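User: Round two. Same drill as before: sequence, then structure, for each protein.

Assistant: Same drill it is. First protein:
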Amino acid sequence: MHYDVVIAGGGFAGAYCAKTLGKLLGKEGSRRVALVAEWNVMVFHPMLAEVAGSSLAPLDVVNPLRQLCRHVDVLQGGIQRIDWARKILSVDGGRFTRDHEISFGQLVLALGSVTDLSRVPGMAEYGRPVKSVADALRLRSAVINRLEEANLVQDGALRARLLTVVVVGGGYTGVETAGQLLDFMTESRRYYANLGDTPIRVVLVHGHDRLLTEIGAELGDYARRILEKRGMELRLNTRVAEIAADRVVFSDGGLIEAHTIVTTIGNAPNPVVVDLCGQLGLATERGRVRTDETLRVPGHPELWSAGDCAAVPWNDRGTIKTAPPTAQFAQRQGVRLARNIAATLRGDEPRPFRYRYLGQMAAIGEHDAVAEVFGFRFSGFFAWWMWRTVYLAKLPGVLRRLRVMIDWTFELIFPRDLSIVLPPPEDVLRAIHLVKDELLFERGAHCRAFFYLRSGSVRLNAPDGETRLLPKGSVLDQALLDDTGRWRWTAVAEESADLTAIRGRALKLLQTELKLTARPLVEGR
């Protein structure tokens, strides 16, 4: 498959570039332009926190790319690599369409960034990102499940951990998600008869001295005061050192016991973009491709870039800056880029990207928000009304706007929905992280998983005082069980350790196979 123009990425920049280019080229655009996106929808990321807090339905914040980007060939698939020498994209379209190749004349890089949670031990295993609709739905289901479990148990310490949520990151996503979860859990507690006076605890952890540093000190401090007044616990100038299944450990040695950890940090350059920059010898700005003011990559007239993966020069009232990686900039960059490509195809010169900055706003829950618009600052209910009005206007499509308006109206009158729409996942292989001295399993407990020790070490303790130290590469399996399928030892992390758990159907099949062959796995091999 060959196209004159291939747009890589279906976020704000890529989608609006495709939408505008389709309008400019008309029906011939579907033969000349392709939009390659990992999913067939554009996600309106600013409203994901409301999906997590059960204020909006998931379909309210997505827009089908095929309906949004008319006269453009929309191709769903994950881009694995870009071979610049051959002008080819390698695309994985799914189980039966892997290694598909798409050739291009001109390429638009709009792949955005990716989530990298590996910098903090345990974050990848237990941190819940808020990057997609699926992430928001999983977080919503997890919070409801914690309420259900807390309503079931009698142990006060366990109930407190179940009703504690830690949100890492005090930017827009972190503040809005924390506010939504606090509202959701507080409003929903009245439907759980056994929770009594057990407090709902939402902790917002931020590595800087102020929240929402992008919006200014005045509004950041206002957001902090309002959140604290509503009962949210803030940990500023605090960094997370390690995360386990039941706790968050901070770099200063403190910890919070919790079973729900939300992470809004960990953005990293897209590896496909990094690889292409390596092929072309391009210098990057914090992993973002440098462009000129027309959004073209200097020295490569057939390569363009916009959105979070691009470092675009921006004239901010006479001062040249790099445009921030936000939705309002990505959308306008996409539109300008499309017009520039259309001009290039006609043989005309592209025009520079110009945009008058409108401002920023963030909802902090309970009909409260902070906003900075055209240099004027607002807070309270008026800012919240402005936030909803602006984002409603920005939503693509009349149908989406109507749905969101109805859902927001219902949320003002009726309680939020507590239905669990996603069952707990059955991960047959699951990565887990243990902090030093954390219990893996107790003697006499039923075996629910076998474990492979990828790093660190685990200490086995027997009732008679015997101990054994299992190093990296060990397997904790059938050899440590008694005839009833219970553990004969207690296992504790000797140091921070990473393991892979084999459970669910895979565990049952493995146990059956071991019984049939009478060849148990050996720990420490």
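Second protein:
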Amino acid sequence: MFSLIACAESELPELMIEPGESAPSINIMQQIGINPFAEYFEITWIGSSEEEAFDEVMLEEKYNVDLITWPVSSYDREGLTNMIASGELPDFAHMDYSPYDAAALFEQGLTRLVSVEMYKRYFPFYYELMLQNEPTSFMHNNVRNEDGSLSDNFYGISYVVDNKWYYNVPLARLDWLERVGYGIDDDLLTPIVLTDEKLDKFSSQTFITSHMWTHEEMNDIFRAFTENDPDGNGEDDTYGGIIFDHSFRSHWVDLWWGQFGVISSDASFMYEDPITGDIVPWYAYEGYRDYMAWATDMRDKGYLRTLPEGFESLAPQGSWYDNLLATWMTGKVGYFFCDKQYIGRPDVPEYSNRQPPQSIWLNTNESATFVTWPALAGPQGLSPNNKWGTRRYNLDAFSSGTYRTWNIGSSVSDEKLARVLTMWNDANSAPLHDEFWSTVLYGIEGVHYKWTGEAWNSGMIRMDTAKIPPEYQRKGLFIGLFRPDPSPIVNEAMAQYNKIFYTEEWYKDYCIEPEKYLSTAYMPVEMMQKYYEDWDIIGENINAVINDFRSRSWNGQIANINTEWDRYLNQLYEAGLRKLIDDYFNSDQFIFYKTPDLSLD
């Protein structure tokens, strides 16, 4: 049992703890007059600027620390590589573009482990989430025992994410749909209301619907957008949408591929071959074959087109994404796959101004109307039991990898780690409108943001950072937020979108779930390492077969894709896919993915 040693009134009592006993909680220590933050710590981390910010000062004063920023961006691959090569890491860092994952950084002696006991004692908010999301919450970043079982230590602190969310939804010109005979009943449409000064005149020109067109209807819509003069100008100058060649794999085209039950953006998704029962990757799954056949057919008919040349003047960076946004902005395209976070978003103008629908309102056609819906249906029919749709952006509530891990430097003591975990526990468990934490996390109302309606129950409009006084500039990066459910702090249009998205649980009905998922959360680390060793040997041969087949498909050199598909599969298996299936994908050690409970609390 711990005890207190008597002391003068001006002194803090000294805490005596017997070996093996747990320290009392921070709250108990404060109640009995002990300052839990008496020891001062300098804490280094990576961020965008060395300049001190007002939210940083608030944290430093409350927790008796000095937050020292190493000005290296988490997205600066070269800067991160050089930092790692120097042999030193900051105390705390999430490094999205790191050349090494958390396990590799630890093996190089650059980071330390985190024990589950540290979570229990100093980050109970996080530990409770681990218990709620067993077993995968304990798998991410876990240091496995020699027998492959889970240990009590972790290579880094795994992110907690909203695993119900998916970014991109179909967006189409509603006025065009009405002109070509595919309008929607008014009682199926929910308007997005905009009240900000910038976009308020376009209020109720974008709608949300749960109405679904069949796959065949959408194909006809793309045809009509191309052939039926949907903008009514008497010119043959419109078309259905933008498509990319078969080699293009991105979350931005998951809706295209997802019609056929296959995900383009994530190579770790594994599928069950309906004939052999084998677990196979995307390039050996029949949905990929069906996507290729559909894409080239729609391209050949001109209903879907690749990005036109000559748009570099409209897209200074010249990237595919810049060209895509510039092409959409012309007002000659009827269908878009767009990010829900930027539909009708007035702030972040350098980015959001180029996003539809507002890019078309601001540059091309002020009267244009739009509609969004859950996903593009597949040819199997509209039953939600069919395997078509898109991808939940995060499969588990816990996530890892370089993009989803906080790394802790090797020199960080338990005491310093405890201080940071305490800060993060306070930040994540505080009430949403707590004065201190709402200021640290979101800023000051009227300076950093304003509400579109009732505070904490409406959309938030962020102020242009260039207009915020220097003394109120925020860093907003050090505090790790670990909340698995949707954030209530979103822009006005997204706040309205979320009410329908989550209430109707689109993420349950319109998302493709993998049979297995290739990661160390589901496959033993040693097995994964052996897999990569084998892939280094045979991967070049497999990729050669993949590249040849998709090139011939895109270039119209395949007369009968079903016949060619059988030949293609035989080539894949001979090139080494048979070995990968037998040794890894079908192995019982590679456990099946199980969709977690996706109910909202």
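The radius of gyration is 27 Å.

User: Perfect.
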